[in-house]
Here is the input.
Amino acid sequence: MRERDVPQEGNVTLAGHRKAVYAVGEDGRLKIVASRGWEVEETVTRQAVEELERLAREARERALDGTGSTLEYHMYRARMDVPLLSQTTGLWRWRVKRHLRPGAFERLPGAIKRRYAEAMGIPVEALEKLD
Amino acid sequence: MQQRAMQPQDATTKQHGSFTHAHAAHCESGVMASLVRHYGFPFTEAMAFGLSSALCFAYLPFVRINGLPLIAFRMWPKSIIQGLEKGLGLGMRFETFRSPERGMARLDELLEEGKLVGLQTSVFWLPYFPSDLRFHFNAHNVLVCAREGDEYVISDPVAEMLVRCARADLQKARFAKGMLAPKGLLYYPTRKPVAPDWARVGRRAIAKTCHVMLHSPLPIIGVRGIRMLAKRVERLPVDGNGGAARMYMGNIVRMQEEVGTGGAGFRFLYASFLQELAALAGHGALEGFASRLVDIGDRWREFAVAAARQIRRRDPLAPPALAAQLRGIADHEESFFRDLRRAQQAWRC
Here is the structure.
């Protein structure tokens, strides 16, 4: 990649930041050039973010009609999935899966709810609600 | 520290006391280059990356992130720190902690002594990161310059300027759990680095990279790993709306360009190392290799463009075409590393 080919496409996922990339300058030497972003990166990052947003939206609907727990919604909001949430809380995967059901989640003792809230970096009260 | 009073501090400076922040393409090599520069002699990110033989390719189907495999274009985390340790005699010390409180107290203590401290963190908990990029990636390296009240002044290599981070956030980032959990890891050098015999350490580093890329015993590492990934891409299902195939392709490109596992970028970084080594060790033969590797990096970028076009439905979904592109890259990398290996063996110093 030559210096003049370094993409400066204003990638929204960088939120105004610039990232350092290496490119060949006029003198044939490689050097660091600050890039405003590349459309390709924007495409794939947005794809991943939108997938998680879609999962969160679906979980929210399930929580509203009472077929899912608020935990599932907050899990996707925190960009997690069941294996990751299980690792960060230290709870077995099958338990986390069980807690995605509304009844099982509501009956949980405060200590377990706190563990979930802590893993996601939100207060316990927020975990029980949809925002 | 009296130096602190000399410099006005705000978010748009690169200078903190006698430390100068530098923007880098990759976190770990950036942190190590900054450390060597601060305590020793002029040193670049590319040299840190190349001398530690960090270039690699690994397709790890059994490591799943949000259900998709890990694809890395460099060696495992910490290998750059450890790789430089031997060549430069840094005497790196690593410390991990069970208790977050003790981990934070130890960080404060080292900063109080005026040391620069490297940390392993999770990007998800670093508030200065753009929100779209805050995924649960636990092996992001940053360098802490100082504590100021409830805030830390941080040199994050992928940020253009010095940044600030609140204590509570930094604690969360250092003690994130999950895969590659940092466990509060901090590291610092105990000796002043000395400039090595560039030809000797350079030759050795090149030999190691060639070996990893060509002769790994595992079919998922090196050039064979690229071919393995090609095989997997070829078989992606295109039935239905092809959503799964698009997610899989997006994952490859994201691993390649976005999340610090770097694809094309690391090929350019290594090419820069070859150029610098050619000049430092007075071995001009490496120059030609640098430009060949730049071409290979461009091929990785073309692959990313083709994949992105299919993801955005500008081109029809065609996994076999992408697989063919990957195989082409594998062939080029194979002949590149074979020739580099030969040149390395012929290089007498």
In short: The radius of gyration of chain A is 21 Å. The longest strand of chain A covers residues 19-24. Chain A touches chain B at residues 1, 12-24, 28-32, 34, 38-41, 43-49, 51-52, 79-81, 83-84, 87-88, 90, 119, 121 (CB under 8 Å). The beta strands of chain A are 19-24, 30-35.
